[in-house]
Amino acid sequence: MATADPTVIKQPRRTALRPATLMESVYQEVLSRLQRGQIGPDDRVLDYEIAEEFECTRMPVRQALLRLVNEGYLVGTTRGFVTPVLTGEDVREIFEVRRMLEPGAGAAAAAVLTDEQLAGMGAAYRKCRRAFERKDIALMTEANVEFRAIWLEGVLNSRLKGTILRFADHTRQVRHGTMTKPGTMKLIVDGMQVLLKGFVNRDAVTVRSATQAFIDDAEQQYFLDTGDAT
């Protein structure tokens, strides 16, 4: 019977890769700043600055930023990364994709969201209402992101969820400046109220129609504010 060779040193089990963890952390942080409008069209995202912030090398930062480029959130330049400049036609196409995907996805999610998730959506709506009363754009953006993130938890198709997330984020980036208008803020808070009622009642028809109306209103408001109604 063969015995184990005592001279063979067993290699230790490989641990989780720290660079991968760092890359994901950087990705999530920059994405969050983009979603909340903290990175605007005049800002440059520089890998060495983020590396200093995270106290890490530039490699995981570059990987995170290139991932955001691939997803359409950023564009690489000779002097760092910037948000993409979208034409009116780009924005129309984004809203068209959203109309094709979000109403059906929201209607399906209404049946599977838990009471805890619905409570979280209620809290996000109340935050949105406070933001409207205070005319606090940053708080309203935060509430909108939270509300959408929760109902997207009910979308079981991960590819569908990721696509909805990216396209909604892209329109949020270009619409961030329009939220200074009281009319835009009222559309958001009123639309969220109708959506919340539909989700709480698990009413797929209401959620579908309210989502459709929410997207239509957002598109109309965007082009009214930009002056491009063609």
UniProtKB/TrEMBL annotation:
SMART domains the UniProt entry points to: FCD, HTH_GNTR
InterPro entries to which the protein is assigned, alphabetical: GntR_C (IPR011711), TF_FadR/GntR_C (IPR008920), Tscrpt_reg_HTH_GntR (IPR000524), WH-like_DNA-bd_sf (IPR036388), WH_DNA-bd_sf (IPR036390)
Residue ranges annotated for the HTH gntR-type domain, each copy included: 20-94
Domain of life of the native organism: Bacteria
GO molecular function (one): DNA-binding transcription factor activity
UniProt keyword list: DNA-binding, Transcription, Transcription regulation
PROSITE patterns membership: HTH_GNTR
Alphabetical list of PANTHER family matching this protein: GLUCONATE OPERON TRANSCRIPTIONAL REPRESSOR (PTHR43537:SF24), TRANSCRIPTIONAL REGULATOR, GNTR FAMILY (PTHR43537)
Protein name: Transcriptional regulator, GntR family
Source species of the chain: Caballeronia sordidicola (Burkholderia sordidicola)
